[in-house]
Amino acid sequence: MRFRFKAFGLHLACSACALLLVLGALYLGWYRWPGWYLTGVVKVAAMMAGVDVVLGPLLTLVVANPVKSLRELRRDIGTIVAVQLLALVYGTGTLWGGRPLYYAFSVNELQMTQASDIDPTEIALAERETPGFAPRWYSLPRWVWAPLPDDPDLNKKIVTAAVMGGDDVIQMPRYFRSWQQGESELRKQLLPVDALRQFTPAQKLAVKRRMQQMGLASNQATAMTMAGRAGFLVAIFDPRSLQLKTLLRVD
To answer: What share of the chain is helix, strand, coil (3-state, %, to 5)?
Structure first.
C-alpha cells in the first residue's frame, strides 16, 4: 500500500499544480469578479478538477501495483495521464473561448460579452473601423459603451436581429465607444432598486439590505441590471461621479 499511496500522492501533486496554473492564469487575467459569476465558469472548473485532481490520482492508486513491471506501470499511468491531459486541454479551450472581453453599457443595462460571442467578421470590421476596440488574443476585459448606431435603418436591423436571436450591438466592437462617452446616457438609465424589472420582490429586498449594510442609500436612482450568460447582478453607481461602487448578487 505504501507504493500505491506514494504514486497517488505524486500524481495528485502534479495534477493539482497543473490545474492551479491554468485556472490561476485564466482567473487573474479574465475571470476575476464579476467574470467568474456571470459566465458560470465554476461548473467547468469543477469538471476539470473532478477529472484531473480526483479521478486521475484515484485511478493511479488503483493501478499502481508494485508487482507490475515498470513497462506495465508506464503504460497504465501513461494512459491515465493522457486522458487527464485531454480533459485539461478541452476545459482550457472552453474557458479560453468563453473568457469575458467586454462589460458593455448598452441601451439600459450592463451586459457581458465573451470571446465566443464575437464573430470573426465583426472582429475584422472593428480592426478596420475602430481598431482601438478590436479584440486581440491577449485583450483583457474592458468596460465600454455600446450605443446603437445613429442610422435608423441600421439601428432597426440590429434590434430586429437581436430579438430573433442574432447578434446584438454588444457583439459588434466597431460600434463601441469609451466608457466616459456614455456616462451621460448611463445617468439617464439609473433606477432605484425597486424599479428594476428583472428581479423578484425578495431579490430586491436582499439587495437593499446589502446596500444598507454597506452604507448605500437604496431609494436613490443608482442601480442598473448587469446581465451575463449565467445570471444577473445589480450594479450600484455613485450618483454624482458615476463611479461603479459595487456589484451585488441577488441570491
So the answer is: 60, 15, 25
Q: How far apart are CA 185 and CA 65, in angstroms?
A: 68
The pLDDT averaged over each successive group of 10 residues in the chain (251 residues) is: 83 92 95 95 89 86 82 87 92 95 96 96 95 95 96 89 87 96 96 94 95 92 95 95 95 83
- Give the containing element (helix H, strand E) for 154: helix 152-163
Indicate the SS3 state at residue 151: coil
The answer to whether 175 and 146 are in contact (CB under 8 A) is: yes
pTM over 0.85: yes
Domain coordinates in residue numbering, the chain: 2-97, 100-183, 190-251
Distances (CA, A) of 229 to 37, 109, 226: 9, 14, 11
Give the SS3 label for residue 175: helix
Torsional sign, CA 122, 127, 130, 135 = positive
Tell me the backbone φ, ψ of residue 136, rounded to 5 degrees: -110, 170
Gyration radius of the chain over CA positions: 23
